[in-house]
Design goal:
Blueprint lengths: L9 E3 L6 E2 L8 E2 L2 E2 L11 E2 L15 E5 L1 E7 L2 E4 L5 E4 L8 E3 L9
Length: 110
């Protein structure tokens, strides 16, 4: 079963150590870390992308979420984000593919 993403989760850009700066909802926590909604990942900045700038490449700067929302667990009517369902890209060249590691195993959802 997919695990719920929290502020302790790692959301990566797919290019080495690149990491998306996430922000939680604050209304639901797991081990004192806020659970993530789509707005806590989508449009957020990326740090430490391994892609080196050149004429044909560019490091990732921003994440774009395509999917990954729970079908049943919501916060304020908005679905929480799930690790194995997260799908998205970044604006890097070549674009990065979002990756996720929940970093917790207490809360799962569908």
């Amino acid at each position: 079963m997919p695990k719920v993403l929290t502020e302790a989760s790692t959301v990566g850009c797919g290019h080495g150590p690149g990491k998306v700066g996430v922000s939680g909802s604050g209304k639901l926590t797991v081990s004192q870390k806020s659970v993530l909604l789509k707005s806590g990942i989508d449009g957020k900045g990326v740090s430490a992308c391994a892609t080196q700038p050149s004429n044909s490449t560019q490091p990732c700067a921003t994440a774009s979420v395509i999917a990954g929302e729970a079908s049943k667990l919501t916060i304020g009517g908005k679905p929480v984000m799930l690790d194995t369902l997260l799908s998205g890209t970044t604006d890097g060249k070549p674009p990065g593919k979002l990756t996720a590691a929940a970093g917790q195993n207490k809360l799962t959802a569908v």
